[in-house]
């Protein structure tokens, strides 16, 4: 039987379509406007990086440079020994990321999948330690590394990562709890131990969570300024964050600072975390979503 739409039905369908189109259009306009607001500081950095230093102080300011100065990137890189500081930051960040992910996933597996007396107490201690600000332990840790003759070395910057991070342990445990225990029991029947279960079953299944931890650890270590400032004295061991902080200090004052070179170098400094995030953002979102789901279910 062939169905036909009446005039009233067609008008109702048209009104509904126009209503949905209007709502979607308004939503897209709001999202685009907010995105422009969020990206404006980055765009302003880019325009300053491509200007001459005198053009930065023009009143009224000009957003688009009249002449592009691409040499600012080369001069900025040369002014702070960018290549050396970049490699220092890469080594420290990679070691810190590997240590944080390896230790936190292992401890999280033990708290979630191995039944032993007092495991909830240990978990509460880990979670409770997150309430203490990191600055509280700065002086005791400084004296510890000083007495161990590790001052002015990279060890204080990555060694604590190999002893676990409380937040990452919490993140790993919550994710492990979403995996059925039947997988462990089936593996144990086949003769697998905890190490085999952890490496061959749990790690592939929990890829989103340890990639999430890797992104967070990479970003936090790369942007860390306080710890390198406290523990590093020799400038050949500095990280890129210290190098960027000392950039403006190399000049007599704010007015004489080469802000175009500073912004150009700062854009290069921002690239690695951005690249890592955009490459692994799908797993990052999955890891945070799984964390929210597991927290609601427990």
Describe what you observe in this structure:
With about 300 residues, this protein is mostly helical. The protein folds into two domains: about 5-50; about 75-295, MetI-like fold (Orthogonal Bundle), CATH 1.10.3720.10. It is built from 13 helices and no strands. It has helices spanning about 5-50, 70-80, 80-115, 120-130, 140-145, 155-160, 165-175, 180-190, 195-205, 205-220, 225-230, 240-245, 260-295. Helix 1 (about 5-50) packs across helix 13 (about 260-295). The longest helix has about 45 residues, at about 5-50. The termini are far apart. The mean pLDDT is about 80.
Concise overview:
This protein is 70% helix and 0% strand. The chain has 298 residues and is mostly helical. The protein starts with 6 loop residues before the first helix and ends with a helix.
